[in-house]
Write a sequence for this structure.
């Protein structure tokens, strides 16, 4: 098979299908587990705090692996990184399926997230190299796979739990991964995503930052013990988080290749945009993943219907995201953010409110759809607002934006799970948290007025 030329490789559509399946698995993995939290909690005899870690560590793994995979793809080629990531994802999925304790499951979920997170940068390089001058369109279609996974994942998870077992949500990954691996070894061109040796990875910064997030998660989770030992251990964890952040700041100062560039965190405007992305990630990514758990604990809704609530949210996102991206040059950044935050707040408050319908799943689906519309309206504007400030450093800004959103998501999951675990009325506590985040979004609206607005092309 020849190397890709200007017009693209001969089997480029097969290559596109292979890497798209990998991305689809990664996308499904972000939502499929949320439908199975009650079953995992019961079968593994653990608390909701630690069951929710199966969601939180997946977000942390992606935050850490994205820059690593990008650098490794440049150094060793996208093909190698993609195939290794598929193998890691498959092996970790098997480990998750066979896990007999929550600690083993959390460990393999972390490894699984490392494999899934490496799909995007490595596969993007493969698509770009394979399609030649048509790479812009191919990458555009490629990234559109992500919303499909968000729609399919909750359905798959609900059906597996209802008619099989929570173990099944991990077992189904194995034959698919094996097929992708076998066909990838045969059809992916060795030169796809050709190696470059001019990029370096700040491993010290990555370890310090990852340690800070992990220590913070542990600190919050250990506080759920609600006794002196839990308070002490939780305090130690939170102290470790602060210490790691201080160490990272010293390490990254005046370092051009820092894992997270500190100069992009300074300044009032960057601070406001980062704060908005943090709140946005907590409300739309973190709390959204816990909607199925809330539906089951408050209304005793089954796994299939509760999983479909996330599908309703994804449909809401897909229905407006494309239009929001196409019209952003006319609307500017602030207007869609105002509407997006408003829709999300209305959805969260609706989820928290008692259902006025005899069929509460319908009420929750409509409210979840509102949060999806809010996400679809806000995401393009909040992404471009930060990037336009430093157009010569788009990749770094995009990484920091994603980092803030994921940290918001991880924090929301950890804090909510801990609050539910120590509450004598978990469903009511969960509802109060949804309503509180809705109020926070409304209180954050004045900050949007400080975001630099822009109409027209850059």
């Amino acid at each position: 098979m020849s190397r890709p030329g200007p017009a693209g490789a001969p089997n480029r559509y097969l290559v596109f299908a292979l890497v798209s399946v990998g991305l689809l698995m990664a996308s499904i993995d972000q939502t499929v587990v949320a439908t199975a939290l009650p079953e995992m909690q019961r079968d593994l005899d653990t608390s909701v705090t630690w069951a929710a870690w199966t969601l939180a560590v997946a977000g942390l793994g992606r935050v850490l692996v994205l820059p690593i995979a990008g650098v490794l793809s440049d150094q060793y080629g996208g093909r190698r990184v993609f195939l290794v990531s598929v193998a890691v994802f498959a092996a970790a999925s098997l480990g998750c399926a066979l896990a007999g304790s929550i600690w083993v499951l959390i460990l393999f979920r972390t490894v699984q997230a490392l494999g899934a997170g490496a799909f995007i940068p490595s596969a993007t390089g493969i698509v770009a190299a394979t399609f030649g001058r048509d790479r812009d369109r191919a990458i555009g279609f490629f990234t559109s796979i992500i919303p499909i996974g968000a729609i399919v994942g909750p359905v798959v998870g609900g059906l597996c739990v209802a008619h099989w077992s929570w173990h099944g949500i991990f077992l189904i990954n194995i034959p698919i991964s094996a097929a992708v691996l076998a066909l990838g070894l045969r059809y992916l061109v060795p030169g796809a995503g050709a190696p470059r040796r001019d990029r370096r990875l700040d491993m010290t910064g990555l370890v310090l930052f990852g340690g800070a997030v992990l220590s913070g998660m542990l600190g919050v989770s250990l506080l759920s013990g609600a006794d002196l030992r839990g308070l002490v251990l939780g305090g130690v964890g939170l102290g470790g988080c602060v210490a790691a952040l201080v160490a990272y700041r010293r390490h990254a100062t005046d370092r051009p290749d820092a894992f997270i560039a500190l100069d992009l965190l300074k300044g009032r405007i960057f601070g406001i945009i980062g704060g908005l992305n943090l709140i946005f990630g907590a409300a739309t990514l973190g709390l959204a993943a816990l909607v199925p758990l809330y539906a089951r604990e408050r209304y005793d809704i089954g796994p299939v219907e509760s999983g479909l609530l996330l599908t309703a949210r994804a449909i809401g996102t897909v229905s407006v995201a494309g239009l929001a991206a196409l019209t952003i040059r006319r609307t500017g950044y602030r207007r869609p953010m105002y509407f997006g935050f408003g829709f999300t707040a209305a959805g969260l408050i609706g989820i928290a409110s008692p259902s006025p319908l005899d069929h509460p799943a319908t009420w929750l689906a409509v409210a979840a759809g509102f949060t999806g519309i809010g996400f679809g309206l806000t995401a393009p504007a909040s992404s471009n607002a930060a990037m336009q400030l430093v157009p010569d450093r788009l990749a770094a800004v995009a990484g920091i934006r994603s980092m803030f959103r994921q940290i918001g998501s991880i924090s929301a999951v950890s804090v909510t799970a801990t609050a539910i675990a120590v509450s004598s009325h978990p469903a009511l506590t969960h509802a109060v948290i949804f309503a509180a985040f809705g109020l926070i979004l409304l209180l954050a609206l004045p900050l949007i007025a400080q975001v630099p607005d822009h109409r027209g092309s850059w």
